[in-house]
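Ligand-bound model needed. zinc ion.
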Amino acid sequence: MTAAAPPIFTLDYCAHYAGYPVDTADLISRDGVWWLHVVVTLPAPEVVPSDEVVGVDLGLVQPAVTSNNQFLGKRAWKDVEGRLFYLKRQLQRKGTRSAKRHLCKLRGKQARFRRDCDHVLSKQIAQAVEPGATIVLENLKEIRKRSKLRKQSKTSRRVHSWSFAQVKGFVEYKAEGRGCTVAGVDPRYTSQSCSCCGHVARNNRRSRGRFVCRVCGFELHADLNAARNIAAKYHASGGRAPTGGLPVNQPIVSVSTPLALE
Ligand SMILES: [Zn+2]
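Prediction:
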């Protein structure tokens, strides 16, 4: 470097990672501020894998519900997301140069908002289980409630799309830090099956967030029922479902652990 060195600040939450071997470093500029994203390697935590398996149902109204009865994330996220969506649509209609500029900023804002939510949610998920446990997610592309899909128009459907890959990637590296494994299961029928008797029917699921089984009468919060089915699916598959690792966008910290799942 030839220029005089500018003042450098380290964020508080990064201090913990100082001194570990550096993998990569990316210098990026945003709104006139330069950020250095450093990826370091941490030693794998010495945690003995446990038998605990926790299924997680990801949704939009309630961001995450775990099979061990935890309701995670904030319901208000959906409203913020909705406001951003309608603002974006208005700007798109306007189409002027200033509207396009505003739109561009809004897209960045939305991406940062979602990333912040995903960080909060994935941390809560990782902390909702004991160290060494297995966290089971559905293999989804987008987070949205499948059962409602048919009734929705094209535009309202777009409000309800949220990248699953980012949440999953964050959960994976936060879980690794606690010696947990993340597994994926086929998402089919997880919301239509009865977690009590196993009966599968489209009309099993009723509105207002309650699941009611047509055969045995079992009744439960619909997302909690789905989370239990997700955990059960993992057990039924012999507990060897592949994780199908998806790339994470610029993690600030990466954790390296042995790749073996067992
Ligand atoms: Zn049933």
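The pocket of zinc ion is lined by residues 194, 196-197, 199, 213, 215-216, 218 (CB under 6 Å).
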